[in-house]
Amino acid sequence: MSDKPMLFSFLRLRCTVWTAPVLLVVLLAAVPAHRASAQPEPTYTERYRPQYHFTPAVNWMNDPNGLVWFDDEYHLFYQYNPFGTRWGHMSWGHAVSPDLLHWEHLSVAIPETDSVMAFSGSAVVDWNNTSGFGTDENPPMIAIYTGHYRERRLQAQYIAWSTDRGRTWTPYEGNPVLDFGLTDFRDPKVFWYAPEEKWVMVVALSVDRKVHFYSSKDLKSWTFMSEFGPAGNVTGIWECPDLFELPIENRPGETRWVLDVDNGGGAVAGGSGGQYFVGHFDGTTFVAEHADTRWVDYAKDFYAAISWSDVPEEDGRRLWVGWLNNWLYAGEIPTDPWRSAQSLPRALSLRTDALGDVWLVQKPVEELKTLRETHRRLDVRAIAEGEHDLTGEGIAGKAIELVVELEVGDAAEVGLKVRQGEGEETVIGYDVLRKEVFVDRYRSGEKEFHPTYADLFEASMEAPEGRVKLHVFVDWSSVEVFADDGAIVFTSQVFPSPDSEGVSIYAEGGGARLVSLDMWTLASVW
Ligand code: FRU
Protein backbone atom coordinates (compact mmCIF):
# COMPACT_ATOMS: atom_id res chain seq x y z
CA MET A 1 0.00 0.00 0.00
CA SER A 2 1.31 3.41 -0.86
CA ASP A 3 1.61 6.10 1.81
CA LYS A 4 -0.97 8.39 0.26
CA PRO A 5 -4.20 6.35 0.77
CA MET A 6 -3.01 5.60 4.28
CA LEU A 7 -2.60 9.29 4.98
CA PHE A 8 -6.02 10.04 3.51
CA SER A 9 -7.79 7.41 5.56
CA PHE A 10 -6.01 8.73 8.64
CA LEU A 11 -7.31 12.21 7.80
CA ARG A 12 -10.85 10.91 7.23
CA LEU A 13 -10.82 9.19 10.57
CA ARG A 14 -9.47 12.12 12.49
CA CYS A 15 -11.29 14.88 10.68
CA THR A 16 -13.80 15.66 13.35
CA VAL A 17 -15.40 19.05 13.73
CA TRP A 18 -12.68 20.41 16.03
CA THR A 19 -9.76 19.12 13.96
CA ALA A 20 -10.98 20.64 10.67
CA PRO A 21 -9.85 24.24 11.40
CA VAL A 22 -6.49 22.97 12.66
CA LEU A 23 -5.98 21.00 9.46
CA LEU A 24 -6.93 23.99 7.35
CA VAL A 25 -4.31 26.10 9.10
CA VAL A 26 -1.71 23.37 8.59
CA LEU A 27 -2.55 23.07 4.88
CA LEU A 28 -2.52 26.84 4.32
CA ALA A 29 0.83 27.10 6.04
CA ALA A 30 2.16 24.37 3.76
CA VAL A 31 1.20 26.17 0.51
CA PRO A 32 3.44 29.26 0.76
CA ALA A 33 6.28 27.12 2.11
CA HIS A 34 6.11 25.05 -1.04
CA ARG A 35 5.98 28.11 -3.29
CA ALA A 36 9.00 29.64 -1.59
CA SER A 37 11.15 26.70 -2.64
CA ALA A 38 10.65 27.49 -6.35
CA GLN A 39 12.93 30.26 -7.64
CA PRO A 40 10.91 33.46 -8.21
CA GLU A 41 11.46 35.74 -11.22
CA PRO A 42 12.31 39.40 -10.59
CA THR A 43 9.36 41.74 -11.10
CA TYR A 44 11.48 44.59 -12.51
CA THR A 45 9.32 47.22 -10.84
CA GLU A 46 11.25 48.08 -7.67
CA ARG A 47 12.89 51.50 -7.44
CA TYR A 48 16.45 50.38 -8.29
CA ARG A 49 15.77 47.11 -10.11
CA PRO A 50 18.14 46.82 -13.11
CA GLN A 51 16.13 46.36 -16.30
CA TYR A 52 18.72 44.50 -18.39
CA HIS A 53 21.38 43.39 -15.91
CA PHE A 54 21.12 40.05 -14.14
CA THR A 55 19.73 40.18 -10.61
CA PRO A 56 18.22 37.51 -8.36
CA ALA A 57 14.55 38.20 -7.58
CA VAL A 58 15.26 38.13 -3.86
CA ASN A 59 18.20 37.88 -1.48
CA TRP A 60 21.94 38.37 -1.55
CA MET A 61 24.23 37.66 -4.53
CA ASN A 62 27.98 38.12 -4.97
CA ASP A 63 30.52 36.61 -7.41
CA PRO A 64 29.53 34.99 -10.71
CA ASN A 65 30.41 31.28 -10.52
CA GLY A 66 30.60 28.35 -12.92
CA LEU A 67 30.06 30.31 -16.12
CA VAL A 68 29.74 27.67 -18.83
CA TRP A 69 27.97 27.17 -22.16
CA PHE A 70 26.30 23.85 -22.87
CA ASP A 71 23.59 22.68 -25.24
CA ASP A 72 22.53 26.15 -26.45
CA GLU A 73 22.43 27.61 -22.96
CA TYR A 74 24.69 30.03 -21.13
CA HIS A 75 24.79 29.05 -17.47
CA LEU A 76 25.26 31.66 -14.80
CA PHE A 77 25.80 30.37 -11.28
CA TYR A 78 26.45 32.86 -8.52
CA GLN A 79 27.31 33.16 -4.85
CA TYR A 80 23.90 33.27 -3.22
CA ASN A 81 22.36 33.47 0.22
CA PRO A 82 18.96 31.80 -0.18
CA PHE A 83 17.89 33.11 3.24
CA GLY A 84 18.52 36.84 3.30
CA THR A 85 19.81 40.07 1.81
CA ARG A 86 23.22 39.89 3.49
CA TRP A 87 26.18 37.58 2.88
CA GLY A 88 25.82 34.13 4.48
CA HIS A 89 24.78 30.49 3.86
CA MET A 90 26.81 30.62 0.65
CA SER A 91 25.33 28.42 -2.05
CA TRP A 92 25.37 28.42 -5.85
CA GLY A 93 22.33 30.17 -7.32
CA HIS A 94 21.61 29.31 -10.95
CA ALA A 95 20.12 30.78 -14.13
CA VAL A 96 20.27 29.91 -17.84
CA SER A 97 19.95 32.07 -20.94
CA PRO A 98 20.00 31.65 -24.72
CA ASP A 99 21.47 35.14 -25.28
CA LEU A 100 23.25 36.34 -22.08
CA LEU A 101 20.40 38.80 -21.47
CA HIS A 102 17.13 36.93 -20.88
CA TRP A 103 17.64 34.61 -17.90
CA GLU A 104 15.51 31.80 -16.63
CA HIS A 105 15.89 31.51 -12.87
CA LEU A 106 16.47 27.95 -11.69
CA SER A 107 16.56 26.57 -8.17
CA VAL A 108 19.74 26.60 -6.09
CA ALA A 109 22.25 24.28 -7.79
CA ILE A 110 24.72 23.62 -4.95
CA PRO A 111 23.39 24.40 -1.48
CA GLU A 112 25.54 24.81 1.62
CA THR A 113 25.60 21.72 3.79
CA ASP A 114 25.57 21.48 7.57
CA SER A 115 29.28 22.10 7.79
CA VAL A 116 30.46 23.38 4.40
CA MET A 117 29.50 26.47 2.42
CA ALA A 118 29.86 26.43 -1.39
CA PHE A 119 32.26 29.29 -2.21
CA SER A 120 33.27 30.54 -5.66
CA GLY A 121 34.50 28.38 -8.50
CA SER A 122 33.99 27.39 -12.11
CA ALA A 123 32.30 24.80 -14.31
CA VAL A 124 33.32 22.88 -17.43
CA VAL A 125 31.80 20.42 -19.85
CA ASP A 126 33.79 17.18 -19.60
CA TRP A 127 33.44 16.37 -23.32
CA ASN A 128 35.62 13.23 -23.16
CA ASN A 129 34.03 12.03 -19.92
CA THR A 130 37.48 12.00 -18.29
CA SER A 131 35.79 12.07 -14.88
CA GLY A 132 33.59 9.07 -15.64
CA PHE A 133 30.50 10.82 -14.21
CA GLY A 134 28.72 10.73 -17.57
CA THR A 135 29.00 8.78 -20.80
CA ASP A 136 30.56 9.58 -24.17
CA GLU A 137 27.08 10.33 -25.54
CA ASN A 138 26.09 12.41 -22.55
CA PRO A 139 29.16 14.28 -21.27
CA PRO A 140 28.81 15.50 -17.70
CA MET A 141 29.02 19.10 -16.55
CA ILE A 142 31.45 19.45 -13.66
CA ALA A 143 31.46 22.27 -11.11
CA ILE A 144 34.72 22.90 -9.28
CA TYR A 145 34.31 25.08 -6.19
CA THR A 146 35.70 25.86 -2.79
CA GLY A 147 34.23 24.13 0.23
CA HIS A 148 34.48 26.54 3.15
CA TYR A 149 34.30 24.73 6.49
CA ARG A 150 32.37 26.94 8.82
CA GLU A 151 33.63 25.63 12.14
CA ARG A 152 37.27 24.98 11.34
CA ARG A 153 37.59 27.90 8.87
CA LEU A 154 39.44 25.74 6.35
CA GLN A 155 39.10 25.84 2.57
CA ALA A 156 39.49 22.95 0.12
CA GLN A 157 38.46 22.28 -3.48
CA TYR A 158 35.29 20.29 -4.20
CA ILE A 159 33.64 19.00 -7.35
CA ALA A 160 30.01 18.22 -8.22
CA TRP A 161 28.57 16.80 -11.42
CA SER A 162 25.41 16.96 -13.50
CA THR A 163 24.19 14.81 -16.36
CA ASP A 164 20.90 16.63 -16.91
CA ARG A 165 22.01 19.95 -18.42
CA GLY A 166 22.83 21.38 -15.02
CA ARG A 167 19.36 20.93 -13.57
CA THR A 168 20.53 18.73 -10.67
CA TRP A 169 23.98 18.45 -9.12
CA THR A 170 25.62 15.67 -7.13
CA PRO A 171 28.67 16.38 -4.97
CA TYR A 172 31.46 13.83 -5.58
CA GLU A 173 31.66 11.27 -2.77
CA GLY A 174 35.46 11.57 -2.70
CA ASN A 175 35.38 15.32 -1.90
CA PRO A 176 37.49 17.30 -1.25
CA VAL A 177 39.70 16.76 -4.31
CA LEU A 178 42.40 19.18 -3.17
CA ASP A 179 42.98 19.85 0.52
CA PHE A 180 46.07 21.07 2.36
CA GLY A 181 44.34 22.20 5.52
CA LEU A 182 44.74 25.84 4.47
CA THR A 183 42.53 28.68 5.66
CA ASP A 184 42.70 30.77 2.46
CA PHE A 185 42.82 28.54 -0.58
CA ARG A 186 39.95 29.29 -2.90
CA ASP A 187 38.11 30.09 -6.11
CA PRO A 188 39.36 27.38 -8.53
CA LYS A 189 39.02 28.17 -12.25
CA VAL A 190 39.47 25.12 -14.47
CA PHE A 191 39.96 24.86 -18.24
CA TRP A 192 40.95 22.17 -20.75
CA TYR A 193 44.52 22.61 -22.03
CA ALA A 194 44.18 20.94 -25.42
CA PRO A 195 47.90 20.69 -26.43
CA GLU A 196 48.54 18.33 -23.48
CA GLU A 197 45.01 16.95 -23.14
CA LYS A 198 44.77 17.86 -19.49
CA TRP A 199 42.76 20.01 -17.14
CA VAL A 200 44.43 23.05 -15.63
CA MET A 201 43.28 24.71 -12.42
CA VAL A 202 44.28 28.18 -11.28
CA VAL A 203 43.41 28.79 -7.63
CA ALA A 204 44.18 31.59 -5.15
CA LEU A 205 46.28 31.43 -2.01
CA SER A 206 44.60 34.64 -0.99
CA VAL A 207 46.65 35.85 1.98
CA ASP A 208 49.96 34.95 0.30
CA ARG A 209 49.00 37.00 -2.82
CA LYS A 210 49.75 33.99 -4.98
CA VAL A 211 47.97 31.73 -7.39
CA HIS A 212 48.81 28.05 -7.83
CA PHE A 213 48.49 26.02 -11.02
CA TYR A 214 47.47 22.36 -10.86
CA SER A 215 46.85 19.81 -13.58
CA SER A 216 44.60 16.76 -13.76
CA LYS A 217 43.57 14.05 -16.21
CA ASP A 218 40.21 13.31 -14.56
CA LEU A 219 39.23 16.40 -12.51
CA LYS A 220 39.53 14.29 -9.34
CA SER A 221 43.25 14.00 -8.69
CA TRP A 222 45.35 17.12 -9.09
CA THR A 223 49.11 17.67 -9.37
CA PHE A 224 50.88 20.91 -8.43
CA MET A 225 52.61 22.54 -11.44
CA SER A 226 53.75 26.07 -10.54
CA GLU A 227 52.88 29.32 -8.80
CA PHE A 228 52.64 33.00 -9.68
CA GLY A 229 52.96 35.99 -7.33
CA PRO A 230 53.18 38.05 -5.30
CA ALA A 231 53.16 40.54 -8.19
CA GLY A 232 51.35 43.66 -9.36
CA ASN A 233 49.10 45.02 -6.65
CA VAL A 234 49.37 43.15 -3.36
CA THR A 235 47.55 45.59 -1.07
CA GLY A 236 44.50 43.39 -0.76
CA ILE A 237 44.16 39.60 -0.62
CA TRP A 238 43.97 37.75 -3.94
CA GLU A 239 40.73 36.08 -5.03
CA CYS A 240 38.87 34.67 -8.04
CA PRO A 241 41.69 34.15 -10.59
CA ASP A 242 41.12 33.27 -14.25
CA LEU A 243 43.55 32.39 -17.03
CA PHE A 244 42.83 32.42 -20.77
CA GLU A 245 44.39 33.08 -24.14
CA LEU A 246 43.23 36.05 -26.23
CA PRO A 247 43.91 37.32 -29.73
CA ILE A 248 45.65 40.69 -30.16
CA GLU A 249 43.15 42.74 -32.21
CA ASN A 250 45.71 44.81 -34.09
CA ARG A 251 48.27 42.04 -34.63
CA PRO A 252 46.50 39.35 -36.62
CA GLY A 253 47.61 35.84 -35.68
CA GLU A 254 49.21 36.90 -32.39
CA THR A 255 47.90 35.93 -28.96
CA ARG A 256 48.83 36.37 -25.30
CA TRP A 257 47.64 34.74 -22.10
CA VAL A 258 45.85 36.85 -19.53
CA LEU A 259 45.93 36.07 -15.81
CA ASP A 260 43.10 37.92 -14.11
CA VAL A 261 43.33 38.26 -10.30
CA ASP A 262 41.01 40.16 -7.97
CA ASN A 263 42.13 42.22 -5.01
CA GLY A 264 39.90 42.09 -1.95
CA GLY A 265 41.00 45.65 -1.02
CA GLY A 266 43.33 48.42 -2.16
CA ALA A 267 42.20 48.36 -5.80
CA VAL A 268 42.57 51.43 -8.03
CA ALA A 269 39.29 53.09 -7.00
CA GLY A 270 39.35 51.82 -3.40
CA GLY A 271 38.03 48.60 -1.94
CA SER A 272 37.77 45.49 -4.08
CA GLY A 273 38.66 45.40 -7.78
CA GLY A 274 40.38 43.38 -10.48
CA GLN A 275 43.88 43.47 -11.96
CA TYR A 276 45.35 41.48 -14.84
CA PHE A 277 48.72 40.30 -16.09
CA VAL A 278 49.51 39.80 -19.78
CA GLY A 279 52.06 37.12 -20.60
CA HIS A 280 52.80 33.57 -21.69
CA PHE A 281 51.55 30.20 -20.48
CA ASP A 282 53.20 26.98 -21.66
CA GLY A 283 50.80 24.54 -20.02
CA THR A 284 52.75 24.57 -16.76
CA THR A 285 53.92 28.09 -15.89
CA PHE A 286 52.60 31.60 -16.41
CA VAL A 287 55.16 34.38 -17.00
CA ALA A 288 54.02 38.02 -17.10
CA GLU A 289 55.63 40.34 -19.63
CA HIS A 290 55.25 43.52 -17.58
CA ALA A 291 55.90 44.60 -14.00
CA ASP A 292 53.35 47.42 -13.68
CA THR A 293 49.83 46.97 -12.29
CA ARG A 294 47.03 46.87 -14.89
CA TRP A 295 43.46 47.43 -13.73
CA VAL A 296 40.47 45.70 -15.24
CA ASP A 297 38.10 48.54 -14.31
CA TYR A 298 38.66 52.08 -13.02
CA ALA A 299 35.50 52.49 -10.92
CA LYS A 300 34.45 50.69 -7.76
CA ASP A 301 31.90 48.13 -8.91
CA PHE A 302 33.42 45.34 -10.97
CA TYR A 303 34.73 42.38 -8.99
CA ALA A 304 35.39 38.66 -9.16
CA ALA A 305 34.87 38.43 -12.92
CA ILE A 306 35.40 35.03 -14.52
CA SER A 307 34.99 33.99 -18.12
CA TRP A 308 32.60 31.54 -19.77
CA SER A 309 33.93 28.08 -20.45
CA ASP A 310 33.03 26.06 -23.55
CA VAL A 311 31.69 28.88 -25.72
CA PRO A 312 31.44 27.12 -29.13
CA GLU A 313 34.47 27.49 -31.38
CA GLU A 314 32.42 28.92 -34.24
CA ASP A 315 31.50 31.76 -31.86
CA GLY A 316 35.03 32.03 -30.55
CA ARG A 317 34.46 34.84 -28.08
CA ARG A 318 35.93 35.01 -24.59
CA LEU A 319 33.04 36.39 -22.52
CA TRP A 320 32.76 37.44 -18.91
CA VAL A 321 30.70 39.21 -16.29
CA GLY A 322 31.77 40.63 -12.94
CA TRP A 323 29.94 41.30 -9.69
CA LEU A 324 28.58 44.85 -9.95
CA ASN A 325 29.49 45.76 -6.39
CA ASN A 326 32.28 46.40 -3.90
CA TRP A 327 32.96 44.66 -0.60
CA LEU A 328 33.28 48.10 1.06
CA TYR A 329 29.54 48.71 1.01
CA ALA A 330 27.90 45.70 -0.69
CA GLY A 331 25.90 44.87 2.43
CA GLU A 332 24.54 48.41 2.70
CA ILE A 333 23.32 49.27 -0.82
CA PRO A 334 19.72 50.55 -0.70
CA THR A 335 18.05 47.80 -2.76
CA ASP A 336 15.32 45.49 -1.59
CA PRO A 337 14.34 42.61 -1.60
CA TRP A 338 17.58 41.68 -3.40
CA ARG A 339 21.20 42.85 -3.22
CA SER A 340 23.60 43.08 -6.18
CA ALA A 341 23.60 42.73 -9.95
CA GLN A 342 26.07 41.21 -12.38
CA SER A 343 27.74 43.55 -14.89
CA LEU A 344 26.89 43.63 -18.57
CA PRO A 345 28.37 40.62 -20.33
CA ARG A 346 31.52 41.68 -22.19
CA ALA A 347 33.65 40.20 -24.97
CA LEU A 348 37.40 40.31 -24.32
CA SER A 349 40.40 40.89 -26.56
CA LEU A 350 43.84 42.51 -26.42
CA ARG A 351 45.29 45.55 -28.16
CA THR A 352 48.82 46.97 -28.36
CA ASP A 353 49.52 50.66 -27.84
CA ALA A 354 52.12 52.74 -29.66
CA LEU A 355 54.86 51.40 -27.35
CA GLY A 356 53.91 47.81 -28.08
CA ASP A 357 52.41 47.22 -24.60
CA VAL A 358 49.46 44.84 -24.65
CA TRP A 359 46.21 45.88 -22.93
CA LEU A 360 42.97 44.13 -22.13
CA VAL A 361 39.96 45.37 -24.11
CA GLN A 362 36.36 44.81 -22.99
CA LYS A 363 33.37 45.39 -25.25
CA PRO A 364 29.69 45.05 -24.40
CA VAL A 365 28.38 41.94 -26.20
CA GLU A 366 26.67 42.39 -29.58
CA GLU A 367 23.53 40.72 -28.19
CA LEU A 368 22.78 43.99 -26.36
CA LYS A 369 21.79 45.51 -29.70
CA THR A 370 18.67 43.32 -29.64
CA LEU A 371 17.39 45.40 -26.70
CA ARG A 372 17.53 48.65 -28.63
CA GLU A 373 14.14 50.35 -29.11
CA THR A 374 13.75 54.05 -29.92
CA HIS A 375 16.78 55.60 -31.64
CA ARG A 376 17.72 59.29 -31.63
CA ARG A 377 20.71 60.80 -33.36
CA LEU A 378 22.35 64.22 -33.11
CA ASP A 379 24.88 65.27 -35.70
CA VAL A 380 27.71 67.79 -35.63
CA ARG A 381 27.03 70.89 -33.59
CA ALA A 382 28.96 73.38 -31.51
CA ILE A 383 28.83 72.96 -27.75
CA ALA A 384 28.96 76.49 -26.35
CA GLU A 385 30.52 76.81 -22.90
CA GLY A 386 27.94 75.63 -20.37
CA GLU A 387 25.48 72.78 -20.01
CA HIS A 388 22.88 71.78 -22.62
CA ASP A 389 19.90 69.69 -21.69
CA LEU A 390 19.04 67.26 -24.49
CA THR A 391 15.71 66.09 -23.04
CA GLY A 392 13.79 68.30 -25.46
CA GLU A 393 15.41 66.42 -28.33
CA GLY A 394 14.21 63.10 -27.04
CA ILE A 395 17.54 62.20 -25.46
CA ALA A 396 16.68 60.99 -21.95
CA GLY A 397 15.88 57.87 -19.99
CA LYS A 398 16.68 55.46 -17.18
CA ALA A 399 17.58 52.45 -19.32
CA ILE A 400 19.49 53.80 -22.30
CA GLU A 401 22.61 53.30 -24.39
CA LEU A 402 24.66 56.25 -25.67
CA VAL A 403 27.46 56.37 -28.22
CA VAL A 404 29.02 59.82 -28.17
CA GLU A 405 31.95 61.41 -29.93
CA LEU A 406 33.18 64.80 -28.71
CA GLU A 407 35.86 67.17 -29.93
CA VAL A 408 37.48 69.02 -27.04
CA GLY A 409 37.97 72.29 -29.00
CA ASP A 410 39.24 74.90 -26.59
CA ALA A 411 37.33 73.59 -23.58
CA ALA A 412 39.18 72.55 -20.41
CA GLU A 413 36.56 69.90 -19.73
CA VAL A 414 33.90 68.35 -21.88
CA GLY A 415 31.39 65.59 -21.29
CA LEU A 416 28.01 64.15 -20.66
CA LYS A 417 25.62 64.06 -17.72
CA VAL A 418 23.16 61.20 -17.28
CA ARG A 419 20.36 60.38 -14.81
CA GLN A 420 19.92 64.13 -14.29
CA GLY A 421 17.13 65.49 -12.12
CA GLU A 422 16.52 67.61 -9.04
CA GLY A 423 20.06 68.06 -7.71
CA GLU A 424 21.14 64.74 -9.22
CA GLU A 425 23.50 63.82 -12.03
CA THR A 426 26.21 61.33 -12.91
CA VAL A 427 28.99 63.05 -14.88
CA ILE A 428 31.10 61.32 -17.52
CA GLY A 429 33.76 63.77 -18.58
CA TYR A 430 37.19 64.39 -20.04
CA ASP A 431 39.68 66.72 -18.36
CA VAL A 432 41.66 68.07 -21.30
CA LEU A 433 44.72 69.39 -19.46
CA ARG A 434 45.15 66.40 -17.17
CA LYS A 435 44.22 63.97 -19.97
CA GLU A 436 41.88 62.10 -17.66
CA VAL A 437 38.56 60.51 -18.47
CA PHE A 438 36.35 60.34 -15.38
CA VAL A 439 33.02 59.32 -13.87
CA ASP A 440 31.73 61.44 -10.99
CA ARG A 441 28.96 59.95 -8.85
CA TYR A 442 29.13 62.43 -5.96
CA ARG A 443 25.66 63.72 -6.86
CA SER A 444 24.28 60.59 -8.48
CA GLY A 445 21.50 60.03 -5.91
CA GLU A 446 21.33 58.14 -2.62
CA LYS A 447 24.82 57.98 -1.15
CA GLU A 448 24.52 58.20 2.63
CA PHE A 449 24.37 54.44 3.10
CA HIS A 450 28.17 54.22 3.30
CA PRO A 451 30.96 56.84 3.59
CA THR A 452 33.13 55.20 0.90
CA TYR A 453 30.42 55.10 -1.77
CA ALA A 454 30.29 58.71 -3.12
CA ASP A 455 33.35 59.15 -5.32
CA LEU A 456 34.99 60.27 -8.55
CA PHE A 457 36.84 57.72 -10.69
CA GLU A 458 39.47 58.60 -13.27
CA ALA A 459 41.92 57.10 -15.75
CA SER A 460 44.61 58.55 -18.04
CA MET A 461 43.53 58.68 -21.65
CA GLU A 462 44.83 60.42 -24.77
CA ALA A 463 42.38 62.25 -27.01
CA PRO A 464 43.81 61.62 -30.47
CA GLU A 465 43.06 64.60 -32.76
CA GLY A 466 41.25 66.14 -29.81
CA ARG A 467 38.49 63.53 -29.98
CA VAL A 468 36.92 61.49 -27.17
CA LYS A 469 34.59 58.54 -27.79
CA LEU A 470 32.36 57.18 -25.06
CA HIS A 471 30.04 54.16 -25.07
CA VAL A 472 27.69 54.38 -22.11
CA PHE A 473 25.06 52.03 -20.68
CA VAL A 474 22.65 53.50 -18.16
CA ASP A 475 20.30 51.30 -16.14
CA TRP A 476 18.02 51.92 -13.16
CA SER A 477 20.97 51.61 -10.73
CA SER A 478 24.17 51.53 -12.77
CA VAL A 479 26.29 53.38 -15.30
CA GLU A 480 28.91 51.51 -17.34
CA VAL A 481 31.33 53.51 -19.47
CA PHE A 482 33.56 52.04 -22.18
CA ALA A 483 36.23 54.55 -23.22
CA ASP A 484 39.24 54.25 -25.51
CA ASP A 485 37.37 51.57 -27.49
CA GLY A 486 37.09 49.32 -24.43
CA ALA A 487 40.62 49.66 -23.02
CA ILE A 488 39.25 51.81 -20.18
CA VAL A 489 36.06 50.76 -18.41
CA PHE A 490 34.17 52.29 -15.47
CA THR A 491 31.50 50.15 -13.83
CA SER A 492 29.57 52.08 -11.26
CA GLN A 493 26.40 51.75 -9.24
CA VAL A 494 24.17 54.81 -8.93
CA PHE A 495 20.96 55.23 -6.93
CA PRO A 496 19.10 58.22 -8.41
CA SER A 497 15.46 59.15 -8.06
CA PRO A 498 13.28 57.37 -10.65
CA ASP A 499 12.44 60.84 -11.97
CA SER A 500 16.07 61.63 -12.81
CA GLU A 501 16.06 60.78 -16.49
CA GLY A 502 17.80 63.78 -18.05
CA VAL A 503 20.83 63.76 -20.36
CA SER A 504 23.03 66.83 -21.03
CA ILE A 505 26.24 67.63 -22.82
CA TYR A 506 28.54 70.28 -21.42
CA ALA A 507 31.79 72.17 -21.98
CA GLU A 508 33.75 74.13 -19.36
CA GLY A 509 36.47 76.77 -19.79
CA GLY A 510 35.75 77.13 -23.53
CA GLY A 511 33.66 75.71 -26.34
CA ALA A 512 33.74 72.18 -27.70
CA ARG A 513 32.01 70.30 -30.52
CA LEU A 514 29.69 67.36 -30.69
CA VAL A 515 30.76 65.10 -33.54
CA SER A 516 27.86 62.67 -33.11
CA LEU A 517 25.53 61.27 -30.51
CA ASP A 518 23.39 58.15 -30.83
CA MET A 519 20.95 57.13 -28.16
CA TRP A 520 18.74 54.09 -27.85
CA THR A 521 16.21 53.30 -25.17
CA LEU A 522 16.77 49.71 -24.06
CA ALA A 523 14.05 47.16 -23.44
CA SER A 524 13.63 45.42 -20.10
CA VAL A 525 14.45 41.73 -20.18
CA TRP A 526 11.30 40.49 -18.43
C1 FRU B 1 35.08 37.03 -3.56
C2 FRU B 1 34.90 35.98 -2.48
C3 FRU B 1 35.58 34.69 -2.88
C4 FRU B 1 34.82 33.67 -2.10
C5 FRU B 1 33.42 34.23 -2.13
C6 FRU B 1 32.61 33.93 -0.91
O1 FRU B 1 34.12 38.02 -3.57
O2 FRU B 1 35.41 36.48 -1.25
O3 FRU B 1 36.96 34.68 -2.64
O4 FRU B 1 34.90 32.41 -2.67
O5 FRU B 1 33.54 35.62 -2.29
O6 FRU B 1 31.29 34.34 -1.07
Give a written overview of the molecule:
There is one protein chain. By secondary structure, this protein is mainly β. It folds into 2 domains: 5-363, Tachylectin-2, Chain A, CATH 2.115.10.20; 368-522, Jelly Rolls (Sandwich), CATH 2.60.120.560. The protein has helices spanning 3-14, 19-37; strands spanning 59-70, 73-81, 91-97, 104-110, 116-125, 141-149, 155-162, 170-171, 178-182, 186-193, 198-205, 210-216, 223-228, 238-247, 255-263, 273-281, 286-288, 294-295, 303-307, 319-323, 338-339, 346-352, 358-364, 372-378, 381-383, 386-389, 400-407, 413-421, 424-431, 436-440, 456-460, 467-475, 478-483, 488-493, 502-508, 512-522. Strands 24, 25, 27, 32, 33, 34 and 36 form a 7-stranded antiparallel β-sheet that branches. It is globular, with a radius of gyration of 25 Å. 46% of the residues are buried. The site of beta-D-fructofuranose (FRU) has 12 residues, from β1, β5, β10 and β14.
Which small molecules are bound? beta-D-fructofuranose
Largest sheet: 7 strands, antiparallel
Oligomer: single chain
Q: What is the CATH architecture descriptor of the largest domain?
A: 5 Propeller
- The end-to-end distance, rounded to whole angstroms, is 46 Å
Quantity of strands, as a count: 36
Name the overall outline.
Answer: globular
Q: Helical proportion?
A: under 10%
The tally of structural domains comes to 2
Structural class: mainly beta
Low-confidence stretches: 1-37
Please state the CA-atom Rg, rounded to the nearest Å: 25 Å
How would you state the average pLDDT, rounded? 93
Name of the level-1 CATH class of the largest domain: Mainly Beta
Percent of residues in β-strands: over 45%
> And the CATH topology of the largest domain?
Tachylectin-2, Chain A
Q: How many H/I helices?
A: 2
